[in-house]
Design goal:
8 helices; 2 domains; alpha+beta; six-stranded antiparallel beta sheet; Rossmann fold; 13 strands; five-stranded mixed beta sheet; Methionyl-tRNA Fmet Formyltransferase, Chain A, domain 2
Length: 315
């Protein structure tokens, strides 16, 4: 098993409880320093340690010196999920059956590191988990099994990723069942149509900045998609300075017939704060200022004077 992040845990737990012989876990090494309050860097490693399974943490999975360690295990198959490195052709060739990778999208959609986030951000109604027979190209191997999942209207990336991770165990079981009947010569799975491929690159901190020119629905999706990191944020003018304001929860207010200016407060009372966007209005419901806890917008309005006409800015 090759995995690092939490997305791989349910599939790994299923694999450990199956009839398959799991030889070892290969996971990314922990960074040299991190805060105690942070979650474990490799939740999969925690599971392996509890089971007494050997754990290998190579800095580079494709290095020649690590290949010797992997060959010593004589694996039939590499199961890869949320690992964090792309395996070379030489690495995949160590196992006679190659590798099965679990990916959190309906491939060829959203190849890359952040498929769950982009599915929500783009307003998709469905996503899923795909098991592919691996090639050295990123998420481009033949599709062996697909497990669709409906995206809830108010679902964020945290809850959707957890549901997809659970679904991944069933997808892996399906893929391995097909692999058991593979003759090793003919094709395994269905080739992806590269013309339909879309990318989901690794998120950056700057992705969280709200563009008020976008429709309110697009910003609503962004807020859900970018949890827990990098989060969605804007800047609130306070005198001659600005304060970064994280948007934890928002809602779309449709049907306004008033002319609105994107980023400008168009309605405010003790409990509500509505902001103009490129289309419709956005109601801010739960927010957070630097160094403060997340709060309802009514609490923000008690301590800060925000009036109609105030414009949220980009820096």
């Amino acid at each position: 098993m090759m995995g690092t992040g939490p997305f791989a845990v349910p599939a790994f737990q299923w694999l450990l409880g199956s009839t398959h012989d799991v030889l070892a876990l290969v996971t990314r090494p922990a960074p040299p320093t991190r805060r105690r309050s942070q979650p474990p860097v490799s939740p999969v490693r925690e599971v392996a340690v509890q089971q007494g399974l050997p754990v290998l943490m190579p800095p580079d999975v494709n290095a020649t010196e690590f290949h010797a360690n992997l060959q010593a295990l004589s694996p039939d198959l590499l199961v890869v999920c949320d690992y964090g490195q792309i395996l070379s052709r030489e690495s995949l060739g160590i196992a006679p059956l190659g590798g099965i990778n679990l990916h959190g999208s309906l491939l060829p959609q959203y190849r890359g590191a952040a498929p769950v986030n982009y599915a929500i951000w783009n307003g998709d109604r469905e996503t899923g988990v795909t098991a592919i027979h691996m090639t050295p190209r990123l998420d481009a191997g033949p599709v062996v099994a697909v497990c669709p999942v409906t995206i809830g209207d108010a679902e964020d990336a945290v809850s959707l990723e957890a549901r997809l991770a659970d679904r991944g165990a069933a997808c892996l079981e399906d893929a391995l069942r097909q692999l058991e009947h593979w003759d090793g010569i003919g094709p395994l799975g269905v080739q992806q149509d590269n013309a339909l491929a879309s990318r989901a690159p690794r998120l950056k901190k700057t992705d969280g900045l709200v563009d008020w020119q976008q429709p309110a629905e697009r910003i609503y999706n962004q807020v859900r998609a970018l949890k827990p990191w990098p989060g969605s944020f804007t800047f609130l003018p306070q005198g001659e300075q600005t304060s970064r304001l994280i948007l934890h929860q928002v809602a779309v207010e449709q049907g306004s017939d008033m002319p609105v200016d994107p980023g400008v407060v168009v309605h405010v009372d003790r409990h509500q704060l509505w902001v103009g966007t490129g289309r419709d209005l956005l109601s801010l419901q739960r927010v957070q200022l630097p160094g403060k806890r997340a709060m309802e917008v009514s609490e923000l309005l008690q301590g800060h004077t925000i009036t109609t006409g105030v414009r949220f800015v980009n820096d």
